Every structure is written in structure tokens, then in C-alpha cells.
What we know:
Layout: H1 3-21, H2 28-32, E1 41-46, E2 54-57, E3 63-66, E4 70-73, H3 79-90, E5 100-106, E6 124-130, E7 136-140, H4 146-152, E8 165-169, E9 172-176, H5 178-182, E10 197-200
Amino acid sequence: xxxxxxxxxxxxxxxxxxxxxxxxxxxxxxxxxxxxxxxxxxxxxxxxxxxxxxxxxxxxxxxxxxxxxxxxxxxxxxxxxxxxxxxxxxxxxxxxxxxxxxxxxxxxxxxxxxxxxxxxxxxxxxxxxxxxxxxxxxxxxxxxxxxxxxxxxxxxxxxxxxxxxxxxxxxxxxxxxxxxxxxxxxxxxxxxxxxxxxxxxxxxxxx
Length: 207
């Protein structure tokens, strides 16, 4: 094999290894066509700015949120498609188009078959998005409060806009302020339900 042939094949080999580590049992060719779905966890890395590197959860509505790129739809798209979109949205922040890499860190869990008849769940699933220390799908006990959930997700990153947190319960969106909750505000005692989504937005400049 010539050195030129080796260099040409190197990106394909690296892609195949990345997909294998992400947990794909299919061949690299099949994995490349995988369509992202809600509940998948993506790893995003930007070589030119390590502060943008993060793990993001694909929310139930199929979207992800990335600082400086905003919210974009990931579900139904491929890893390569999300990568191209992020590159396009971020390139205005750099002198040249940045090197953006997207991989699947964890696949969404398939819903188990439920037994017939009403059964009291042992845990509920709460989805955490944005600038949380531990975003993703978190299983907690029924009756868990908002303040307890903040502890479960490990608090917030330095980019978090803690005064503009959102709690999405079905079609209802509640605005939460962590400083008020920390001071004893009643919002911290809100009981979470299965399927609730907590969104921690990125703080604005000088916020």
C-alpha cells in the first residue's frame, strides 16, 4: 500500500472505529446511515475552541442546543448532517471554518414492554438539556422535586443562565430562577412528572 493510499483511507478507518466504540453492532457502512432519534446522546467537539466541547441529549422534540450555534433539529438527521449544520452555524465565529466532530456517545434506550394493568412506576424519567453538569435522561424516584433534581444533575456549568431555567411539563412551560429557589422560593418544591424536561439555557453576554 502506498503512502497516498494510506492517507486516503485513514478518515474512513477513524470513522469506523468511532462508530464501533459508540456501540454499533452493524458494519461501518450501515452505521453511517443511522438516523439520530430522541433520547440519543451526542458528543460534540470543536478543535479550535475546547469550551464548546460537550455532551448533548437529543430532546423529546428532536432538537439539541449548542452555545453559539443555537437550537437545531437532530432527530431524523445523520451524524454527518448535524456536523455540517454545526460547522455552518459556527464558522462566523472563526477566521476559517472550524473543525467540528460529532459522534454518538450513547443510543436511546428502547422502551420496555409494560405489563397489563396499572402499575406504579419505581422511577420516572426526567430529561435535562443545556448547561447542566450532567445532562441527559435521569431516572429519579416519583415525588422528586425541582430542587432535588438540580442536585441529581450535579448543578450547572459556568455558561448557565440560572435565572432563566425552563421546566417543560407537556404543553406547559414554567420559568424558574435558581437564585430564588436557593433562597427558599416555592418553585423548588414543584413535583416532577415522568417525561418532564428541564432546559438550562446559555447565559447571554454580560448576563
